Amino acid sequence: MIIRVEDIPVQGKQESFLEEDGPLNDRLGGETTDLGLRFSGPIRVRLDLSRTGRIILVKSRVEVRVQCTCARCLDPFALNLSSEFKMSLRPRPDPRLAPPEEVELSREDLETDFYEAEEIDLSPLIQDQVLLTLPPKVICREDCLGLCQRCGKNLNREACRCAVAEVDPRLAPLKNFRVH
Ligand SMILES: [Zn+2]
Ligand SMILES: [Zn+2]
Question: What is the value of pTM for the model shown?
Fold first, then answer.
């Protein structure tokens, strides 16, 4: 999604569009891929753009569907992620010139990014936003029982008898000795 600075009226404007999920999946590096995460379907984006002089205020809401693997029971499931961000975009200061006077931002917690030309490609920023929303660990539901540590059964689907047959904890070291 490319916006032109000039096209943003002072009173602001809204944009809704879809971003392809391909680049997002490309950016999912080793560690995240190990967690079994994969975006499925485009990112739905809604932008609120406003401008004060050359400073652009972007409010964005993103929604995307992710295919995941539960960290506890290893079942695949789908997750809808959504998040809202606010950031300001300002022209990159020219290093050859004296530093410009600091401009007060209306909100202190705002992320600031710089742009160089009259046209700004928002796609990488939107991708960043989505990737930041990814949880470090996903579980299929709050009360997922996971896999039995001993027999590997998915305890959400069937109970196993391992817990019942649990050995006396004082003998546990011996049991481990046998297993390995
Ligand atoms: Zn689970
Ligand atoms: Zn078991």
Answer: 0.72
